[in-house]
Amino acid sequence: MQIFTKKPFLDDGSSSSSRSFGEDCHLYFEYNETVSVDGLRLPLTMMVEELAKKHHGLNTLRTSDLSENSWFSITWSPATQIPSRQTLNQYFLTYHSLTPVIPETIPKGTEVELPAFGVLTTKLSGEVWNMPGTSDQEIINRHEEAAASWLGKLMFSHNDFDLFMAEKPKDLPFSSGHYEVVYGEW
Description:
Number of strands: 7
Distance between the termini: 20 Å
C-alpha cells in the first residue's frame, strides 16, 4: 500500500516522506507486508485500523487529498470447489487505486467499487482458468504487466509481487513470462 497526497501531509508533527513525484504527489505512507502468502495476515480493514493508530491520516485523509498514484493490493486465497475437479487452493493478488471518482461524503452503507487494474495469480492450472480458443491468457498477461509497470513507476519493491512471480508454475503449456520491475523516473 502506498498513500500519496497532493500536498505534503502533516501527521502528529511529522511531514510526509521526502519522496515526491512532482508538485501534487507526495508519499505520505507505505506499507509492505512481509509475511508469506501462506502465513497468517489480518484482513485489510483490521490492518488499516492497526496502522492508523500511528498514522492518523489513514482515518482523516479525504479522497480529494489523495494523489491518483495512491494504491493498495490484496492477497486472496480462496478455496473453491469446481465440479469434477479437486478443491483449488490458489492465490490471487489484486491491485486497486484509492482514488475512484466518488463524492467526498458517501451515505453509510453505500458500496464503493475499486476495480483491479493489475492481477497476478499463482499455483493455477491453465486448463481450469483459461477457455481454449479465447484471449484469457492474453488478459492474464496484460494484468501481470500492468502490475509490474505500476510498481516500477512508483519504485516500490512489493514482496507479494516478487513471491507470486517466483511461485508461478513453470510447467504450464503456455508461459506468461517473468516480468521484471524496472524502476525509473517519470
